[in-house]
Amino acid sequence: MKASIEQTELLKAMAKVQSIVERRTTIPILSNVLIEAKDSSLYLRTTDLDIEVLDKVEAIIETPGSLTVGANTLYEIVRKLPDGSRVEFLNEIGSSQLEIVASRSRFFLSTLPKEDFPIMASEEYDFEFSIKAKVIKRLFDKSKFAMSSEETRYYLNGVYLHPCIENEKNILRAVATDGHRLAKFSHEIDEKVNQMSGVIIPKKTIYELSKLLSEIDDDIKISLSPNKIIFIINDIIFSLFSK
To answer: What pLDDT was estimated at residue 196?
Structure first.
């Protein structure tokens, strides 16, 4: 692999993908970010086995390739590099090290094989629709405070998102409860969304999505299957198993 990218763009992408990485895990590969250099872009992917985040950022690709390195370590390195500097990734075939060159700095990071990195299986989605980012964020913001923190009641550790009809209007509703209090917030939508199935979106996903949605003012796309839900937010693909 030989690729270069502007530090500011790389920092933005790494801030989005590394936030779901567990700092303490018994599976070393889950601490890593999968970097794929191809098609004039760097693809950055992380997962905790329940959630997967994929972001794409433009780069100069001289030699395509892919590898995994520690996500938090890479993020801290990029964060401390001079603003606007050019960051170069170098990895020779067969090497277990990634060389990072930027300005007068040079770093060497150990890698793990990309084959060990778990990727969520793709599948057909039964339903998809588009919605304003500010609408879905408002649904989450108005209900998430009532989510439960008890691990034994995992089905309450999230927000239940579902369509319904109220006063002859099509409504998308977010509901959260911890068994003592309940928060419910609704927003009028078009008729098509009434075809979606209700899903429980986990607490960790709610907080991560809220951060991403706060930076977006456009439509986002949501796709659902019986087992998975995907949020497509510009170049970011946020996947998770639904409950």
So the answer is: 79
In sequence order, what E strands does 8-48 have?
Answer: 32-38, 41-47
Given a contact cutoff of 8 angstroms between Cβ atoms, the answer to whether 236 and 16 are in contact is yes
Query: DSSP label at 122?
Result: P
Q: What number of residues does the chain have?
A: 243
Average pLDDT score over residue span 91-116? 91
pTM of the predicted model over 0.70: yes
In CATH, the number for domain 127-241 is 3.10.150.10
Q: Residues 57, 81: contact at Cβ < 8 Å?
A: no
- In the block, tokens 């068994």 appear at 179
List the one residue out of 20, 4, 8, 101 whose CA is nearest residue 54.
Answer: 20
Residue 16's H or E segment, with its range, is helix 7-17
Q: Looking at domain 2-116, which of 1.10.287.3610, 3.10.150.10, 2.40.320.10, 3.40.30.10 is its CATH number?
A: 3.10.150.10
The mean per-residue pLDDT over the stretch 146-159 comes to 88
Rounded Cα–Cα distance for residues 109 and 226 (Å): 39
Q: pLDDT at residue 242 above 80?
A: no
Q: What burial letters (b/e) apply to 139-162, b meaning 16+ CB within 10 Å?
A: bbbbbbebbbeeeeeeebbbbbbe
Any idea what DSSP says for residue 74? H
CB within 8 Å of 156: residues ≥ 6 apart: 147, 148, 150, 176, 177, 178, 179
